[in-house]
Structure formats: structure tokens, C-alpha cells
Amino acid sequence: MIFPFIALFWTSVHVVHAWPAKIPIQSYTMPGDREQGVIAAFNFTVERHNNNRMNPFKFAYRNRDMRTSPSDTWGVTKKICDDLEHGFMMMVAGETNRLHTAFLGIADHLEIPFVNWDLSPLLPQEVASSNMEVSVRPPTAELLADLIIYKRWNYVIYMYDGKNSAQNVQQIYTFIQEKSNLSVRAELVRIPRDASELGDFLRDFNLHRFLSNEPKRIIIDVQTSYRQQQFLAAIRTAQFNQHHYHYVVANFDFSPYDIEVFQNGNTNITGFQLLSRERGEYAALKRYVESQKFYASMDKNIDIESRLAFVHDAVLVAKAAFEQTLRKNDSLFHQNFRHGDLFNRGYPGIYCYPKQDTKYEDRPFGTFEHGRAIVKALHSIQLDEKDGTLTGNIEFDRVGLRKNFEVTVVDLVSNSKSAFNKKEIMEWKHSVGFIANRTIAQHTRKQLGDVVSKKIVKVATVLVEPFVMIKRGCETSNSSECQGNERFEGYCIDLLKLLSDRIEDFEYEIFLSAGNKYGVKQPDGSWDGLIGYLLNGGADVVVASLTINQDRERVVDFSKPFMTTGISIMIKKPDKQEFSVFSFMQPLSTEIWMYIIFAYVGVSVVIFLVSRFSPYEWRVEEMANGGFTISNDFSVYNCLWFTLAAFMQQGTDILPRSISGRIASSAWWFFTMIIVSSYTANLAAFLTLEKMQAPIESVEDLAKQTKIKYGIQGGGSTSQFFKYSSVQIYQRMWRYMESQVPTVFTSTYAEGIERVRNHKGRYAFLLEATANEYANTRKPCDTMKVGANLNSVGYGVATPFGSEYKDHINLAILALQERGELKKLENKWWYDRGQCDQGITDGSSASLNLSKVAGIFYILMGGMISSMIAALCEFLYRSRIEARKGRINNMQNLRDSLYQQLRLSFQGGAIAKEGSQAHEALKRQKASSLLPAQYSDPITSEEFMGSTKSAGFPGRYNTAV
Ligand code: GLU
């Protein structure tokens, strides 16, 4: 593996290719290190070293990613021993907790140099004289002690999540005692592990100490930069007045981003910086680490952690130590590399314990032969930025801790009585303290100052109809009417105008929330959207359809509600029922109509048959000529007529006399009575109501079906309502909505409403009733609100805690409400501008119009026309019969007959003169007047009209019964 070559002489540090062998070093990483880029940082630095041809030697670098529990000291020891058997000359690890004992144990007993890129948890007095360890991360105790003395604090709270905090506090004490006569009390508080608990933890903390008005100075000592970011986010969004607090971030991860964010807020905070971020080496490291995919997935906001810089510098320290060792004796390692193995004291590998070996039977137990020499070199190295370090000057003291390093201390102080925030940048040097003439103080104007003269209030809002809309024509135009606040219109814009009229010096500037977001709490405790703007000072006031809820009320102030509403359901209007001209048929189904026709024919046949068989229906009649006829009224034709008359609720002059006939008729009458009354009852409902059968009528309907999908707007109070509801049905709905692919969540109301309109009734949208009702009054008028509201919420104007506008806004809103101004505004934006006829009602109308009943007129007309046609047929038929009666079957006769019939029809009557044929016929009829009229022989028109050609043979003219 590694072969020593001919020894060359070290004459200067810059010997090129002086020693081409590879020096084996071994690093150890813990769970989580890979994800945080530690291994990447190692690889980067070792590769950079190995690729530099100016370097006199190369590293053979190996890493072992320990997957052990944090307390498995024995397991770790065993693994290191295994690695040692293959041989390495230095180990590099970052360990501050329990496993440190394992590393230090091996380092001390086998004299293996150990570079800890973190900070050794041992107190200086604990460190044995044979100390083989150096720590690249500098200790903070002295710096913190100097800061406490500088600020003259006599009570501090030390919040920590690591193991060695007690030692650190103890060291701070020692330094304070050494340097001053200040008496300081300290309290240790453990920070919860779970990031989501940080907000509650801070709140509880504040609550418990609320009574003591004593200023609270909190030193935050968290182990990783990621945890620190979470904690700082929790501080930024902490829901209490933090004027009495001063935070100190005790590791070296206070980034420029943090400074910027806190500078604009009103929190007192001090942080330390050690990293030289401007250096090209830093940029290259950052690029490399970010290019590794595990790191790229992390939050981009998090600047590269200082621990990566320590890892980087640990490799430089190792390199410097070997250079230093070889500089003294360049052939020192010549005996150590044979046959690709590392030989120690003449035997291959380094063993933690005496080993029985066939080849080397009497192998004695021995420490690493060059360990002490290398550690000596480690303690004497002196590196600075010129050597490529990222954490400044690197020198180690007797116990292996950094000395002579410099730290930049950034102190952000916000005085509640001043209009300015103060930012002080101080330089601090180890064993020297704050360097007096290198402090730079800057004053920045506060975001919300009491003393600040007239300022423009920044109002954040979101676009939602009809609350805030872009004026028509201003979407793309940049004309002067579309500049600034003039670009917007809507209920909230009018409300803002009213508020500014009532509040003195309330000049405002409206801007829209990025992504049209209202604001929800993020997993790290921060807020996005409108609430986020209020918390980070981006906005002074929020005037929007912003729902007041508990979560938000904890972080910002809300005015009294200016409007109340609730979550409601919007669906697409179902299509109106189609009415045809034969709608009057609809009360009974086609099937029933068919059965009625069959029943009608059937009943007629039955009546015909029973009448035929029943003797009571037969009558004997004497005829005028003395004969007798036996007749039955119920011919097929008459039966049909009788049954039809009964169905139409009319009477006829024939009625059954037999019991059988009467039974059949009664049954039919009963049947028709029920059918007709049912028809009548249904008819009213069918003809007068344009019923719109909505498929969904309540939230329960919606929840229990899956045909119609439903969704909500994400990132607002509605989604919070469903997410945290304890009501089973809403929980079920939330689970359903979450599980849908493609998603049923929309980013704006407009998108949701569009979806309702375009999905042909297959999508319902849950939104606040205000926006729902507005949309229903807009063209194309195809949406409607169904069911009752799911909850009741209010919209309020939000301001950050401690805002000077809060009380003014509250009073103004109450006044506007009392005077009815808010109601007027509501009418203006909701009802006066409605574009749909039926407004927001469900569109039912009670009038009966022609289109629905035109059919009966058609039937009437049809009846009349057919009766006229029938009359014509009868007329022609009769004329022909009459003509035949004349026995002269020629055209002349037919024409005469027609003519006479026509005359009678037009004249409407005629006089029978004495001696005429008609007169004779009438006389005959009179003679037979004993007979019932209809059975007598009526006179024919021909006879009556006195036709000379008539044979005087009386025929039956009237055939009707
Ligand atoms: N008004 C809601 C809010 O303040 C936004 C809309 C919604 O969530 O339905 O978050």
C-alpha cells in the first residue's frame, strides 16, 4: 500500500516531491455527520492537499462511519483497535460527548495523536500530562466570561443541549473570578430535543419568569448549527414581548443572515463569528459540500456550518504536524512502511493488546513509536489564514486547546426607548479580551419607532375577490391611475381608506404577499405569508380577509372582527329541469300512461262483454211498424265512449243497469278517481316549481360520497380547521383530501372556483362564505352555496405585538361598525354589483308559464280540428247516403244532395210547407210520437227540404243513441 522511497533531504518547507509516500490517517464520523457534510468536508480538504503537487507528502485517508449508540464506548474502542491493526498514524474525530473517552483512552494508551475537530469536553485540569489530543474548535468560556464582565451582568441563564455545559459554566466562573470581582449567578436550563417544542418551551419559560422584571440574559449553547437555526427561528416568532431578554449565541455559527434578520427585529442578541467567509477556500468548500446530494436536500437558508470549517482546519492541522515532524527528521518514518503495511517498532500494525501471533510469536505490547514526536509537533504548529485556515490563527496551548485566536462579536441591542437599533461589532482575542479600539458601532433606524416622524405604514394583503382586486385595466397597464395603492380596489381597500380617514398620520402603501399566502406556522416555528411579514418586520399592518384564529393570535395582535363568516360549500349549479310543452304529462310516468290506456281498453271490453251476457242490459222495443226489436245500449263504440267519459269525470246518458255492469263501472270510477286526484296533486308541483335538485345539500352529503371530489385552499385557516378538528367527519374529510392525487388543494380561491366551474359538477370547493357568496353573484352564474356554514370565524386587521396602530385601528373598526359603514361597504361589494338575476338564492320560481302548458292548447286545437274533419266526413258520407236513397246513382243527384245539405247547414233551419214531402214526413213522425223520440224515424233533410226527387222512404238520419 504505502512504500517509502529513497529519502530526500528537507532543506526548506517548499521541497517539491521530497517525500512521495502516503501517510495514513484515519477519521471517525458519527451518525448524522455524513448528512451534515462532515465526510464531504474531509474528502474535500484531503483531496485538495493530495492534489497540490507542492506538498511534500500525501495522505492515505480512510474514514469509518460509526453506526453505534452514543454510549457504546466498548464497541467504539474495539473498532478503533481493529483499524489500528492495519495501521494509521493519526486519528481525527469530532467528539464532545461520552464516546470521547474511547478516543482519548486509545490516544493516551497507545500514544496515537488525536485531532478533535470539535472541543474536548475535558477541563484543563483533567487533562493528563501525556495529552495526545488537540481541539480545533476553540473554547468559549473565556469569551463568555469577558462578555459577561463587559456587560456587567450578574445573572445568566445557560440553555444547553450538550453534555459538557456544566464544565463550561464552571470554566466561565473561573475566568470571571480571575478577571474581576463581579459576582454572577447562573442557572442551567436544558433545551428540549424536539424542534417543534421550542416555541412552547420559550413561552413557558417566559410565563414562569414573567413576574420577575429582572432582565433575562440567556446563553444558548446548542450542539449543531441546524439546532441553532431552529432555536433562533423560535426566538424570532416567540409570542411574548422580548424587551427584557438578551440572547447570546455561544457557538460560532452566528451567520450574516442571522444578523440581518435580527437587526430588523427588536431582539437583543449577541453572536460570535470565527469563520472567514470571504475566503475563496470557504466558497470552494461550500460549493463542494452543497454539491453532495445529502447536503443539498437541507434547508438552503442554513449557511455552511462552522463545524465544516473546523473539519477543514483539522486536516490542515494534521498536515502541519507531519510537516513539522518530518522537518526535524525527514527519514523518521523510513522504517515504518514495509510491504504495504505500517510497521510499528518492527512489527506490522499497532495492537491494543499483546497478541499471540504465529509469525511474530514474542510480539511485545508497544505504543506507537512516533506518537509523542507527532504530538509535540501538533502542539507547536502555528497556522494562520495564509496557510489556508478558515478559522483564523491556529495554535494550541499545553493542554491542546486553541490559543491566540480572534473572534468577532456581533452585539445587536434594541432599546425600547430609542428609535434606533444598535449594532456593535467587536473584536475579541484570546487571553487579551476585547480589543478596545477595534469596535465598530452602527445605528440602524428601528422598524417601528415611536419617535420616528411621519412614516408610511406598510400594509400587506392578498388578492381575493371582492376584498382586494386589481382594478380593471390595471393588470398589465402601468399608467398613472394604476400606480401604487391606486392599482387596487375592493372591500379591504375601501376599509383601509376609511381607517386612514379616522386615524391620524396613517399614510399607507399596499403590497401583496408573495405567493398570495395568508400564513401558517412552519415546522421550525416560523411563519410564512402575511403573518410572516408582520413577524419579520416586512409589514406594519395586514388588512385582508385574514381569519382570526388561536395560533395566529398567539403571535400577532388582531383587531375586533370587521366581518364574520364561516366555511361553506360551493358547488356547480345543477342544470335546470327541462320543460317540454307536454310537461303536464310529467306528473305520471310514461309507464303509468301506458297502463291507463291498456286499462281503458280492457275495462271497455269487460263492460261490453258483461253487458252482452247480462239479460238486464237487453231491452225489447216496439217499432213504429208494429215489430219488436231487442237491443243493447252497450255496443263496443258506446262502451269506449262510456269509459272515456267516466275517466274524464263526465257523464253520459247511457248507464249500466245490470249488477255486473255496475260493478265493473264502479271499479273503473274508483280507479279514475284515484288516478285523477294523484295527477292533480302532482301537477301543481311539477308545473310551478323549476326544481333544482342539488346533488349535495350538506357537508354530511359531501363527506359520505366519493363521486364528487372536494378540496380547499391550502396554507390558510380552512386547512388548519380541518387539520386540527376533533370532529370525526372533518377529520375524515381531511384524510380524504390529503390522500387525493392529483391534489384537491388549491393555492387560491380563484383557482378553486374555476375548478368548480370547469369540472361539470364533479368538484366541490370549501371556502369562506363571504367569497362563496360573492362568486355566486358573478357571471356565468353557475355556482351556488349549499348547506350551513361549518364554523363561525371573523376577519380582523392584524398588527405585530406592540404596534402603535393597534388601539387606533380597533377603535376605528368599532366606530365604522356602529355607524353602519361596514354594512354599506358590504352591500356595495356583494349585492349592488351582482351580475346574476337570481342573486344568491337557489333560483326556484313559482310562476306557471306558457311553455309548460302549451301542450294542452295543442291538444285542444287538435281536438277541434279532428272534430271538424270528422264533421266534414260525416257531411260527405250523409250526402252520399241521401243521394243513394234517390236510387238514381248519378252525379247530378249527388250534387243536389250536397247542395241541400249545405243549405241546411248554412241556414241553420227550414220550414216545411204543407203538402211538401217534409211536411208529410213530420206528420208521420207525429203519429208515432208514442215511441221514444230517438227510436222514431226522424225525417231526412231531404224530406224536410222538400226534395221532389225523394222517394219518401224514411231512413234513419240520426244514428246516434
Ligand atoms: N381567510 C383564510 C385565512 O385567513 C384564507 C382562506 C382559507 O383558508 O379558506 O387564512
TrEMBL record:
Residues 466-536 form the Ionotropic glutamate receptor L-glutamate and glycine-binding domain. The record marks 696 as: Crucial to convey clamshell closure to channel opening. Keywords: Cell membrane, Disulfide bond, Glycoprotein, Ion channel, Ion transport, Ligand-gated ion channel, Membrane, Postsynaptic cell membrane, Receptor, Signal, Synapse, Transmembrane, Transmembrane helix, Transport. It comes from Steinernema carpocapsae (Entomopathogenic nematode). SMART domains: Lig_chan-Glu_bd, PBPe. The record marks 723 as: Interaction with the cone snail toxin Con-ikot-ikot. Belongs to the glutamate-gated ion channel (TC 1.A.10.1) family. One of its GO terms (cellular component) is ionotropic glutamate receptor complex. It is found in: Postsynaptic cell membrane. Residues 1-18 form the signal peptide. Its main location: membrane. Residues 456-832 form the Ionotropic glutamate receptor C-terminal domain. The chain crosses the membrane at residues 592-610, 667-689, 855-877. CDD domains: PBP1_iGluR_AMPA (cd06380). L-glutamate binds at residues 547, 552, 717-718, 768. Pfam families: ANF_receptor, Lig_chan, Lig_chan-Glu_bd. This is Glutamate receptor 1. GO terms for molecular function: glutamate-gated receptor activity. It is a multi-pass membrane protein. SUPFAM superfamilies: Periplasmic binding protein-like I, Periplasmic binding protein-like II. Disulfide bonds join 81-352, 781-836.
